[in-house]
């Protein structure tokens, strides 16, 4: 039975269209919805809206569902629409009146919001762990091969000398900042929407929202119920923006490595195990993994903009449009997690070629100019004197 069922039959084409792929996407929310439902049931018992026996039955049923889900055996059918309906139907079928009471004092609107917040907390903590692994791999590369000199580039032209340590350390630093962003989002989303119902609170019933929030590990409940619904248009895109920032870090690394590993450069070697081949050219060893990571940044950015666009021009309160951002959220997090994992592996296998990382004389032009400055020559005169030595490579008027 659908949670909104009033006794009439919905047009099947309309049902198929409105359900979309929610019943598939929601498979990852089952355990989180069960955790939220358990906290809600305990709050209902505290408000004397459930008996001790009913709470025990609901608790047992939710544990059964969680166990089935962990074994991949909890089924969400298209006619269920989503995990929330499937869970309630399971409880009602198994425990009768207790199952019918579990939805008291909430709406599917705050129910999905709460499950998403619990899922997001888990995903953000996993993202932090993988950022730490990636930063560790970059730092290990810096320690092992950091003393190798490397040309630094501006405008896609050789500019000044740097080292593998500085280059690899750049990505470790970026990952650490991305983790700080994740910490901020964990703090921002640390507020329970449960009990805000359809966005206007629950009349008459005296349900302790702070109690259910604490049971789920939130520091507080969202005070304004209308804002609870608004957060779906703010928090989810913010999490997707973190994913796009993570992917930008990896995009930059992948772009560098595609160029550095070209035979024409040869600065770094990718292990054969990291490269794929051509179906027609026997000699090819292609950096497909790097190209895919590089491209996935743009895919994640597109999902972020999709969610931001969906959030605009909607009046306050719940609108079904918001449901279309669930898939993009999952896609962004899945991509960022998988890409961090693979790039930590790639970074750990890099081998820089000291002989090919040639530091050409022009890379030291700035250093030479500053030596003249230390001898008392005004910088602008020193700049022109050194530029005259490298006339063919000088770029007058450039930004640096």
Describe how the helices and strands are arranged.
Layout: H1 12-19, H2 22-25, H3 30-46, H4 52-70, H5 83-95, H6 97-101, H7 108-145, E1 149-154, E2 157-163, H8 164-188, H9 209-215, H10 225-260, E3 268-269, H11 288-311, H12 326-348, E4 351-352, H13 365-374, H14 379-389
Key features?
Fumarase C, Chain A, domain 2; single chain; Fumarase C, Chain B, domain 1; mainly alpha; two-stranded antiparallel sheet; 14 helices; 400 residues; two-stranded antiparallel ribbon; elongated
Describe the structure.
By secondary structure, the protein is mostly helical. The chain has three domains: 12-101, Fumarase/aspartase (N-terminal domain) (Fumarase C, Chain B, domain 1); 108-204 and 223-352, Fumarase C, Chain A, domain 2; 360-400, no CATH class. 60% of the residues lie in helices and 4% in strands. It contains 14 helices and four strands. It has helices spanning 12-19, 22-25, 30-46, 52-70, 83-95, 97-101, 108-145, 164-188, 209-215, 225-260, 288-311, 326-348, 365-374, 379-389, and strands at residues 149-154, 157-163, 268-269, 351-352. Strands 1-2 form a two-stranded antiparallel ribbon. Strands 3-4 form a two-stranded antiparallel sheet. A hairpin with a 2-residue loop joins strand 1 and strand 2. Helix 7 packs antiparallel against helix 8. The model is unreliable at 393-398 (pLDDT under 50).
């Amino acid at each position: 039975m659908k949670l909104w069922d009033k006794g009439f039959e919905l047009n099947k084409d309309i049902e198929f269209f409105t359900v979309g792929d929610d019943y598939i996407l929601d498979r990852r929310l089952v355990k989180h919805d069960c955790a939220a439902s358990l906290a809600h049931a305990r709050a209902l018992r505290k408000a004397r809206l459930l008996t001790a026996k009913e709470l025990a039955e609901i608790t047992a049923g939710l544990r059964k569902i969680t166990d089935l889900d962990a074994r991949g055996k909890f089924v969400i059918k298209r006619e269920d629409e989503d995990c929330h309906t499937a869970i309630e139907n399971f409880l009602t079928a198994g425990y009768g009146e207790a199952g019918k009471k579990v939805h008291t004092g909430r709406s599917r609107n705050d129910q999905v919001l709460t499950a998403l917040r619990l899922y997001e907390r888990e995903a953000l903590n996993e993202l932090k762990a993988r950022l730490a692994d990636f930063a560790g791999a970059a730092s290990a590369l810096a320690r092992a091969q950091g003393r190798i000199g490397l040309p630094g580039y501006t405008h896609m032209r050789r500019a000044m000398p740097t080292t593998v340590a500085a280059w690899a350390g750049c990505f470790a630093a970026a990952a650490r900042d991305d983790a700080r962003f994740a910490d901020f989002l964990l703090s921002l989303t640390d507020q329970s929407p449960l009990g805000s119902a359809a966005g206007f609170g629950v009349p008459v019933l005296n349900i302790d929202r702070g109690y259910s929030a604490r049971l789920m590990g939130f520091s507080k409940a969202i005070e304004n119920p209308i804002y609870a619904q608004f957060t779906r248009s703010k928090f989810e895109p913010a999490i997707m923006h973190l994913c796009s920032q993570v992917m930008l870090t990896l995009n930059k690394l992948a772009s560098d490595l595609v160029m550095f590993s070209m035979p024409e450069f040869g600065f770094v070697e990718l292990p054969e195990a990291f490269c794929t081949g051509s179906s027609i050219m026997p000699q090819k060893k292609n950096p497909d993994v790097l190209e895919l990571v590089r491209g996935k940044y743009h895919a994640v950015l597109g999902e972020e903009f999709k969610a931001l666009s969906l959030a605009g021009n909607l009046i306050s309160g719940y609108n079904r449009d918001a449901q279309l951002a669930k898939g993009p959220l999952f896609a962004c997090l899945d991509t960022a997690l998988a890409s961090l994992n693979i790039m930590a592996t790639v970074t750990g296998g890099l081998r820089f070629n000291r002989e090919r990382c040639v530091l050409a004389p022009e890379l030291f032009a700035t250093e030479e100019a500053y030596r003249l400055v230390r001898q008392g020559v005004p910088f602008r005169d020193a700049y022109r004197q050194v530029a005259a030595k490298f006339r063919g490579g000088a770029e007058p008027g450039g930004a640096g």
